Amino acid sequence: MQTNMGSIDRILRVVAGFALLAFAVFGPADISWKWVGYIGIVPLLTALIGWCPAYSLIGVSTCPAKKA
What we know:
Layout: H1 7-26, H2 41-49, H3 53-58
């Protein structure tokens, strides 16, 4: 498993992941689709490991050192 994400991509995923999780945890209690915020775990995990399975499937790499 090679890194296929650049630093900007990883930073954006961390920001999006935390925003989604913040919505899930601190959002209004009366919203029945609050579970959608827990999808924020996915971008956080991909940013942490630096590898995106979707990028691998379509042959994309945002990492400047390693192009797919």
